[in-house]
Write a structure and sequence with these properties.
Two copies of one chain form a homodimer. Chain A is an alpha/beta fold and 321 residues long. Chain A has two domains: 157 residues, Quinone Oxidoreductase, Chain A, domain 1 (Alpha-Beta Complex), CATH 3.90.180; 135 residues, Rossmann fold. The first copy, chain A, is built from ten helices and 18 strands. In chain A, the strands form four sheets. In chain A, strands 3, 5, 6, 9, 10, 17 and 18 form a seven-stranded mixed sheet that branches. In chain A, helix 10 links the parallel strand 17 and strand 18. In chain A, helix 3 packs across helix 4 and helix 3 packs across helix 9. At the A-B interface, strand 15, helix 8 and strand 16 of A face strand 15, helix 8 and strand 16 of B.
């Protein structure tokens, strides 16, 4: 098969031949038609990930064909027996094992799910890891309920957009933050009530004025902006954190936390039941993932460059011939 | 009646005559036999509290007599209708209203509870605010369960000691931190499995080695030490925060939070149902509050000085003639 190979950290990916995968016990081989990028893939090419093995094949998101049936793949395996938290054996496709930036992949049979009928292959490939992460952060850890006022930070990111779409579908009033006014407008087009540009001074005060306090805040950034999220939360409210692209939080106030009786919960990926529930939600509400751009698998380096520039809105997808 | 009056911020309290309280609608007048100090009282004398009115009477904890029956008082009123969080009308006895450092107090009838039979008046007076705060932080917000491994930071404080006693009574394995080895030993005497002095370099590593990771951590400190609590928590574990004596947390890691699927919840005081449940727990397990020292009401300034020095272990109580 053809695949996009990471030959060494820091080197461009190499589109070349690779041996067809052999299925292990309980595994099947799926012919891939589309894959999608996650920041994880970019971080691995930059060496910013533990336990990188080369040569290898990146990619956690895939959709394709198994015995003529259209399927989408669960991005993780070996979650373990505790629904609350992944086991130490948990793995995401595409490192340390082989991923979806290839013509074929061997996965556990249980990881293969029917593709939601209303989605194309490229749309379905945009769904797995970001959709799963959003589902757990919003519903399981975030305890989202119909009627909640929800703030989603970083409105252009893959997980953030799924949080927005899922919460709108579930009857929430959703607001976003972004560093880009155009992205805020596009979020409104997806059902957001409004948004605020976090590059503005005292952006949180403007948002409080426009929207009031939030039942639930979903954050993937951390960093210095996180301190304001405790001010934006309603007393008794919840902050669900699935990422930390802005790094360490330097200004976390225990006083705001306890006086407002807030709950802050971490969330990463999701278990098998959450993946199945996420697919059901997407099918029920006919949710269509937002796709930024589709590249050919052979143009994977251009796709990574697009992600590295950070200007995308939605998922960057690779089409596999 | 005689009372200990705060005449002005920064001035010593003044033991003098004050008009007997008149009960408002739904209120009764309780004759006080003992009161106890909380850090809140000290902070108010130092001006470190919003909305201080002088002259007034401090004190949130009280036990005494109503129509010949021995009673203990709920420390808060007007929690409101949302069990998750106090209303804006919530008040704690002793500011802005009149408190328990007096011969008598007018309180809502619903705030009067039978004194647990196994406790003396001074012991019962040690219970209300710290016991309530500990109860909510441990059970409601902390979701403590039998068999949990629990870390309680700042092992000598009033709330911390109740957390220790309640968790031991509930079948937990409890560890403590303190800046004082003698306090750690005394915590062991109360049922703690062990403890570590947080003045030691890399104290969290020593604790991890001795105890392993924790299901639940109860913290009243915040500050720079808080970052280590995320390292000490078990994946899927919980950190319950009822105070922030060490101030802002400068090193909060979103990565640890989400990767370990941790929950951090704020907790302050508690509602009426929690106060009743706390009294039941104390009665069932015949828990006796730890008392550091008993002063006469007229010696209230010495009692405050003792608290300000921070050497106490357990509650500082005022006996009322």
């Amino acid at each position: 098969m053809k695949a996009l190979i990471i030959e060494a950290i820091g080197a461009p990916l190499n589109f070349r031949d690779w041996d067809d995968p052999e299925p292990g016990p309980g595994e099947v081989v799926v012919g891939l038609k589309a894959a999608a990028l996650n920041h994880r893939d970019l971080f691995i090419t930059q060496g910013l990930y533990p336990g990188i093995k080369t040569p290898g094949i990146l990619g956690s998101d895939g959709a394709g064909l198994l015995d003529g049936r259209e399927v989408v793949l669960a991005p993780g395996k070996n979650w373990g027996t505790d629904a609350r938290v992944q086991s130490t054996g948990y793995e995401i496709l595409g490192m340390p094992g082989l991923g979806t930036f290839a013509g074929k992949i061997a996965v556990p049979h249980a990881a293969v799910h029917p593709k939601p009928g209303h989605l194309s292959m490229t749309e379905a490939a945009a769904l797995p890891l970001a959709g799963l992460t959003a589902y757990r952060a919003l519903f399981t850890q975030g305890a989202f309920q119909k009627g909640h006022k929800v703030l989603v930070t970083g409105g252009g990111g893959g997980v953030a957009l799924f949080c927005l779409q899922f919460a709108v579908a579930g009857g929430g009033e959703v607001w976003v933050t972004s560093g880009d006014d155009e992205k805020i407008d596009r979020c409104k087009g997806l059902g957001a009530q409004g948004g605020v540009n976090y590059r503005e001074t005292d952006w949180h005060k403007g948002l409080l004025k426009a929207a009031g306090e939030f039942d639930l805040i979903i954050d993937g950034a951390g960093g210095a902006g996180f301190g304001n999220l405790l001010r934006l939360a309603k007393p008794g409210g919840r902050i669900s954190v699935y990422g930390g692209t802005q790094g360490m939080v330097p200004n976390f106030s225990p006083q705001l936390l306890f006086w407002k009786q807030l709950t802050i919960c971490g969330s990463t990926m999701g278990n098998d039941a959450e993946f199945a529930d996420m697919l059901k939600l997407v099918a029920t509400h006919r949710i269509v993932p937002v796709i930024d751009q589709v590249f050919a698998l052979s143009a994977g380096n251009e796709a990574l460059k697009r992600m590295d520039q950070g200007a995308q809105f939605g998922k960057i997808v690779l089409s596999i011939p």
